[in-house]
Amino acid sequence: MTNSLWYKNAVFYEISVRAFKDSDGDGHGDLQGLTEKLDYLKDLGVDCIWIMPIYPSPLRDDGYDIADYYSVDKTYGSLDQLKTLIEAAHQRGIRIITDLVLNHTSDEHPWFQSARADKNSPYRDYYVWNDDDKKYAGVRIIFQDVETSNWTWDEKAVQYFWHRFYSTQPDLNFDNPNVQDEMLNVVRFWLSMGIDGFRVDAPTYLFEREGTNCESLPETHAYLKRMRRMIDADFPNAIMLAESNQWPRELIQYFDNGDEFHMAFHFPLMPRIYLALAQGDASAIVKILNDTPVIPANCQWTTFLRNHDELTLEMVTDEERKLMWREYAPEEKMILNLGIRRRLAPILNNDRRKIELVNSLLFTLPGSPILYYGDEIGMGDNLNLPDRHGVRTPMQWDDSLHAGFSAGTPFTEMVQGDYHYLKVNVADQMKSQHSLLRTIQKMISLRKQYAALGGNQLEWVETDNPAVLAYLRGQGDEAILVLNNLSEHVQVAHIPAEYQTSGQNLFEDRPYILNAHVSLQPYSYLWIKL
Ligand code: GLC
Fold first, then answer.
1. Among 124, 399, 489, 524, which residue has the fewest nearby CB atoms (within 10 Å)?
2. The model scores a pTM over 0.85
3. Which residues have C-beta within 8 Å of that of residue 326, sequence separation ≥ 6?
4. pLDDT in tens, 86-99
5. What are the tens digits of pLDDT across the range 394-446?
6. What is the C-alpha separation between 528 and 473, in angstroms, rounded?
7. Residue 457 class from Cβ within 10 Å (0-12 exposed, 13-18 middle, 19+ buried)?
């Protein structure tokens, strides 16, 4: 598959392999199970899947704590099964990216084991050590519900080691040239196998320097650029996607001159979609997109509503966060760190109108959208499970025992109550033309049919109504007017004279006359081709 700009208008789909489909009845989803479900993804219109870490790991952070960078944990299958998956996906025109965890390893990685056991080990300097815990003072703690410091004392090493995430995830020392080379080898290994790129986990924190916040340092960018040069030279169709939770003006450093990352998640847009909905007012979305600079032509944003982590509210004010917690996380147990550990459908009270509306935004605003597995059918979460595990439960395929996920006992407790698999599953929603799944499928197919929806051209349309977010995508021959009513009441949108014309309602596939005013039902949306 060649086309080096494929990611600029692609629909991504994030998967926890463990939770997707179990092929052998051991209760754990695996690579073969995922391979069996590729036709489902193809049908849905997915262009690229992002699989969460499948490397050997003690799973203190669900695989983001890697104990071996060069193999696949046996519960998922083998490297050969991964190759089969890649081939089968490519045959269907679907690409696969995986997580690349650069910043840290598991404390069970042989490098760390050797480093802590022996001051003279060649691996000692693979990590960041200090005699006291005072260095890099003031650097923020990310997992603040669990960790009280970025330093942890190691009895064996008789020193403190540095970690930005859990204390079971020691940070690698990127000042060591061997670490730098080692990680380039890891990249080469997976790309040679046919992987199409990486969601680069936490690239912000690679280097540390006294007197800074240790984030996005020049040394970090220089190393990431080096990685990009290697990828461009040897694997020109592969991508690097940055997971860096920053303001757009800071994030664009990660694109720089189009010579660092191909893509970056637009983190600040995500909470503003929910905020705008809670406020019944579009301005938060308008403001953040107006604050988003133009990016190089070979770069693209990735947009999303949910992922495998908590819905992070780091990028809103204290007041906005309180409002969102009140609205979307009314019970204490729904909150994690600065976010909300729930899935899309429960966050929106399973209100079909709201779920469709936020997806309307996702599929019509600029950027390549990422869906989180199960959100296309409105799956629920399981708040009995700790940490972020409640949003990583088995995919609900049908109403047979264990949701058609596994013939054995699933690795975790399934979702109960209103979102039980008897009520929410793929098979049922396939049967009905009116299901959420069918609607999402339609949105994806429209997005692909009309290049205007995939480009980055966006013009706000003034409707004299703050509850209505209206914009024009594309231009000339292909222009699409999108209207979204963010409020719980019927709203009237004024349509400026230049758009008062005849068009086509893309969902109903019939003519639509735009008059001076359009009346919009609560939480409704319209996509009109002019
Ligand atoms: C990223 C991942 C998250 C993980 C963390 C540490 O933020 O999304 O799941 O816990 O990195 O690797």
1. 489
2. yes
3. none
4. 999 999 999 999 99
5. 999 999 999 999 999 999 999 999 999 999 999 999 999 999 999 999 999 99
6. 10
7. middle
Q: Which two tokens stand for residue 445?
A: 């197919």
To the query of whether residue 201 is one of the catalytic residues in this protein, the response is: yes
Q: How many CA atoms lie within 13 A of 235 on its CB side?
A: 20
Residues 442 and 450 sit within 8 Å (Cβ to Cβ): no
Q: What angle do CA 318, 319, 325 make, to 5 degrees?
A: 85
Nearest-atom index, ligand 1, CA of 307 = 8
* DSSP 8-state code for residue 244: -
Question: For residue 14, what are the β-bridge partners?
Answer: 50, 372
- How would you classify residue 404: left for phi > 0, otherwise alpha for psi between -120 and 50, otherwise beta? left
State the catalytic residue, choosing from 14, 154, 215, 243. Answer: 243
Spatial separation of the C-alpha atoms in residues 487 and 521, rounded to whole Å: 9
Atom of ligand 1 nearest to the CA of 64: 12
Q: How far lies 461's CA from each of 165, 201, 499, in Å?
A: 43, 37, 9
N residues, the chain: 530
Q: What is the pLDDT of residue 475?
A: 77
**Active site residue: 14, 30, 201, 320, which one?**
201
Cα–Cα separations (whole angstroms), residue 497 to 1, 128, 221, 393, 466: 45, 62, 47, 50, 19
State how far the Cα of 21 lies from the Cα of 34, in Å rounded to an integer: 6
Backbone angles phi, psi at 335, to 5 degrees: -95, 140
